[in-house]
Each structure stands twice: as structure tokens, then as C-alpha cells.
Amino acid sequence: MAESPRSSPRSRQLLLRIRRGLFASPLDTLITVVLAVVCGGGLWNLFHWAFLQADWAVVLSNVRLYFNGNFPVSQIWRSWSWLGLLGALCILTLMPSRLLPPVVVRLLPLLWVLILPIGLLLLASGLGLEPVKSRFWGGLQLSLLLTLGTILMSLPLGILMALARRSSLPLLRWLTTGYIELMRGMPLIAVLFFGQLMIPLFLPEGWTLNRVLRAVLSLGFFMAAYMAEDVRGGLQSIPKTQLEAARSLGLSPLLTVALVELPQALRTALPALANQCVASMQNTSLLAYLGLIELLGISRSILANPDYLGRHLEVYIWLALLYWAVCILMTSLARRLERTLKVNGHH
Amino acid sequence: MPAQFFKKLAVVSPLLLLGLAGCATAPEEKVSLLEQVRSRGELRCGISGRLPGFSYLTTEGTYTGLDTDICRAVAAATLGNPDKVDYTQLTAAQRFTALSSGEIDLLSRNTTQTLSRDSGGGNGLTFAPVVFYDGQGVLVRKDSGVTTLEGLEGESFCVGGGTTTERNLNDVMQARGIPFEPVKFETPQEREQAYLDGRCAAITADRSSLNSSRSGFEAPDEHVILDEGLSKEPLAPATVDGDDQWADAVRWIVYGLMSAEEQGITQDNIDERVASATSGADQENAALRRFLGIEGDLGGKLGLPNDFVVQAVRAVGNYGEIYNRHLGPDTATFIPRGLNAIYTEGGLHYAPPFN
């Protein structure tokens, strides 16, 4: 049929490419057939399971819990509106900037910094809204809150430490190097355990530090060490001549850092930093093992409901999809930022 | 520059020390947690939140289970409202720290009572009465025909690695000279899957956990839990050491639930029974009147309202009702009462007299 003179040149070309790519030699054909059978069989089994055997009630009846945790139902609009704002901000950022009014484009970075305080205000409140304790925060909302908190804490801290590590003051240099090496030498789970178990013991009697805050602090201090190394890598890529040029122009050391070094260093370090941000989203799931009811934690509580006993596979596949969606969103945001910076950089 | 630095340090360090000392001194008069709970208007209860039948999240986003009902009973008895509970999910590693650091008032999280947990040299807890007698059991396939541990000679056991469960299994099998092969897993799900895939002939874990595993299987009836137990696991709520008033209150609230079952007082008939004891057929029954707080000052002695048992039973029912609601025959997590029956029915739950 492919040889029929009626078929358009385009489909002929496609068929030709398929034949050349997949069936060029008997060995190629064999590999293609075996792979197709294996993948096809796997996919068929998956679909068979997903549509005939799986019972998705454990996901469908608990959607609110996965997204908002056990946030009080009467106040749930607050949780949804924060998630909605976050989503809208992502869409705005990903839209081609020529479709947006320039004011919005200029405000975007500010909005990203503000989204965490806005979230805290909406979720915890007090200011006009009924206060909701942090133990009611859960599900994806808590995971995102932890991620944002971690990034907003560790990025500035990381930048400061990267600069301190190159400082000419020996004490400062030693301290930061020591800190970074200490944090990088410890597994994250140990740091998290320390944050959740030891901090309450060290605090004076009667003092308590909110568990969510403890989690953000431990995650933030940990990630900051990695961020610092990424930024340092960026700083090292700047040729020394630039610093000499800055000095001969009469720029003060502070201005040299702010105007010459950091903008370039951050642009270079951006892919690595974005990597850390995605990792910090995934790291929040470790907190399920410390009693927080973030996405993974709340799923385990739902799985303990006798109505859904043994429905692990459904839940874990759903979780995989959710985490994947969030991480894909984060990487596309990072790519977008990279492109924007590159354009500006060439100006 | 260094000289200047040290000069500054010399000025700053006494101030720093002073500040630290300020934090450390003045340990105020210890206020009993009972008083704190009442002034806060809320009971902070530590739970697992991930154990079928004991504490889990419902679709509505509320916690429920046997462990959470104990929290609710204590809240009802102390505050008059079972909904005034602030639940914190705790992992096994966190639970004792949460109690000793004052993050929670009451630990109701399937915790086995042991000497080292009770003692001041250990975890420094004070245990309330046991609310569930658990024990390590063994789950096998019914068609294997195995009824005793001896029947599992040379077979492999799926077991949680590095747990007391694994140690108990080793101890018992060694003592009885039965060779076996342990296959270790990190989570219950892995354990179950391996067992269902036929990688081992038996799973061993606490009976309550085996039961919920079995309920999740496709054909629960094809599996049985052996009658033989490998260990004693008395699960009890706990409070922090050194706060006797609070510990006493919790202890007698739990006893109240058990005593109510013994006397046939239920959530449904409690108001009837109160009316009858106040000015009806039971008017002369002094013991009942004391129990219900109509006469005497039993509650007051504990720092609780005199009708604290009535409040608790009205909120969650008696012990038997709580048990049946979460672990009874109508639930997916059915565990026969066995040792958990009241003593008059052959179980171990025995409340001392309310005198």
C-alpha cells in the first residue's frame, strides 16, 4: 500500500523513515518486534488494571483531602483560592510576555515573592479571617507551602554563604565552609529528624515552635548549603578581568558584587538552582515520615481508612501523577526564566 | 582589627550569658496539665493517624478510631465537649519527645506499655489503663493447614526488619528449636505483597496490624491468624511523668468507660440511667449514684466534674461500644474481642471500684 502511487509524498516519507529506523535489518526488526510486544503487553496490562480492576474511589472520594488536607470545610475557600492564585501565577509566568501588559511582566517577580506571605495570610490568617491552626494544613497545599518556604529561605541564604565562602575574612570563610561541608555531609532525613525531634527538647520550657516552621527551617538550612555551592560555581565562571575592570571604574566592593558578579553568577547557576528547587519539592515528601500530613502523609492516613484498605497502588499512582505534574510545572517555569534572562543578558 | 574584635567580644559576652541565664532561670510553679487543658479549652492529643481501626482520616477529614475515641472521652470528661481535641500525628520515633517537650497532653497512639518506657530512667511516661491487649501473631494461608508454629518449620516468615517483632520471632523460634528463614521488609505494604506473591509462608506482626492487612486482601477468608501469640503488647494511653493529677484523671476516665460497660451503661441509655438514679428505681443504688456523680465527690477529688463519666459515655459510649464501633464484627477491621472483653466475660479489662 505504501508503494501505491496515490499516497502523498509525505506519508511515503514517513513510512520510509519508519522502515529505515525500525526495520532496517533482521536484527532491527527483531528488536522492534520484541520491544513492541513487551511495551504493548505492559501498557495493555496497565490499562486493563486501571479501567477494570482498580477502584479509584480512594482517589475520587478524597480529592479535597489530597489538595487541602483536613482544612476546616467552612473555610476551605481560602485554601482553594491560594492554590488558585498559585496556579494563575504559574500561567501568567508561562504566557508569552508580549501577550501581557508590561506592568504585569514587571510585577511578576514581586508576585512570586509575595505568594508565600499571601498564602500564610490566607491559610493561617487572624487578620479578619478566622484563625486556622497549622495542624489543619495538609495535602498538596502543605507540600507547596513547604517548598515555597524552603526556596525563599534557602536561596538568599545560599547566595550569602556563597559570597561569604569567597570572603577575605578568614573566620567568615572558615565558618561558612565548615557549615556547608557539614550540611552536605549529612543525609537530609537526619537533619529533618533533628529539626522535628531535637529542637523541641532544646527550647526553654513552655516554648514551642510550630512543626511546619521547624520543617521549613530544617529543609531551608539544608538546601541553603547546596544552593551556596551552585551559586559559588556561577561566581567562579566570572573572569577575573571583570572584577579588575569594575575596580578600575571605581565601583565599591558591594556594588561590584551586586552589579557585576551576582547577575552573571545567578544566570550561570540557574539550571543548577532550578534543579535544587525541584528536588526540594520532592524532599518535602520525607516529612511524611515525621508525622506531617503533606501529600504523602495524608495519603497514608487515607489508606488507613478501613473503606480503602489495600488500595495502595491506586493512591501511589495518583501521587506519582501529582508530584510529576508539579515538578514539570516547576521545570517549565525555570526554563522560562532562563529564556527571559538570556534575552535580557544579550541586550 | 583583632584587638577591636576582642574588645567587642568582651563587652558582648557577659550580655549574652545574661540572656541565656534569663532563659534558664525562673521555672514557674508547675501547673498540672489538667488545669492547662481546661484553661486552654482544648486537649492536645498525639495519635498515629495511620492505623486502621485505631486512628485514621475519614473522607470528611476528621480523625476516628479507638485511639481517637479515648482522646474524645478525655476531652468530654475534662471540658464537657468531645470535639475540643487538637490531634497531632506522631511517628513512633517522635511520640515520647512530643510528650516530654509538652507538645501534646495525652499520647493515645497504640503504645506498648513496657518497663523502660514507664521508668524515669527510660522514657519517663505514666501509663493509663491498657485499652487494647495486642500481641504478635502469625498469619498463614488457610489451605496450608498450618495451625501451630511447629507447622512452619523451615518456612520463611515475612517480617519488618529491625523491629521488636523480628526480635520476638527470633527469641520464640530459637527457644522452641524451630528453624525458619526471616525475609525482612521496611513497610507493611511490602510485607503483604511479598506474602501474597508467595515469597513467604507466613507474616508476623501485631495481630491488630495483621487483621487490617488481611482485610485489605482480595480474599480475606483464605487466610487465618494462628491462635498462638509470640508476645504481649498491652497498648495504653500515656501521659508525662510527674504530673499525678493529670495522670489520675486520665486513668479514671478510661476506667469509667470500662466500668460503664460492666454495668451495662451505654450511650443510648445513659440519660435514662441518670434519671433513674436521680429520682427513679435506682434512687437507692448508692454505688451507681456515686459512679454517675449524683452523690459524693468522686470527680471533684480528681479535679474533674462529678459527672465526668456521664460526659465521657454520652460522647463516645462505653468501652465495649467504642471497641465494636472500630474493631467489631461489622467493621472491615474486625478483631475478636478475646482478651479485650470485660473481665466478667473472660477478658482482661477490669476497672477498680469507684469509691
From TrEMBL, chain B:
It comes from the Bacteria. GO terms for biological process: amino acid transport. Keywords: Signal, Transport. The keyword Transport applies. The keyword Transport applies. CDD domains: PBP2_BztA (cd13692). Residues 1-26 form the signal peptide. Residues 42-273 form the Solute-binding protein family 3/N-terminal domain. Belongs to the bacterial solute-binding protein 3 family. This is Amino acid ABC transporter substrate-binding protein. It comes from Candidatus Synechococcus spongiarum SP3.
